Amino acid sequence: MTTTEDTTAVHALLHRSAAAWAAGDGAAYGACFTEDATDVTYVGTVYQGGAEIGRAHQALFDSFLKGTRLDLDVIGVRFHGRDTAVAVTRGAVRKHGAKEGRHDKIATYTLVRRGDGTWGIAAVQKTARRRLMEAFSFRAQPATRPSAG
Fold it and tell me: For 65, which of 10, 11, 60, 73 could close a Cys bridge (C-beta 3.0–4.6 Å)?
């Protein structure tokens, strides 16, 4: 059985990863992941392990993603047993100082309780959200519209 504390801890971990992103701190970002984690990026690159995820993101933070933040909105968290959770988020990468706007990514996180009782990200899959294609699909075939926003 999971607790309110577990839900709070999962939310805190996801927001800590976003804070590490905003700080441009690859090591702190990678530390949010387990040693054997998988990160499938928005562009389809696959990274393995928290150390590699942190190293690669530091290179990104120093170049393509310099001066950006990860806006993150947790849509929901579901627990599967005591030590595993799945979280779905909406998000967007924005320049520091940019206004909030539409989220253009969906990410699915698998989180696990580590041996020390803390939570870690075991896997994340980031996907582009194509609003126009969604709208077309929903209009052409209304039964494809999900019940949750």
Answer: 60
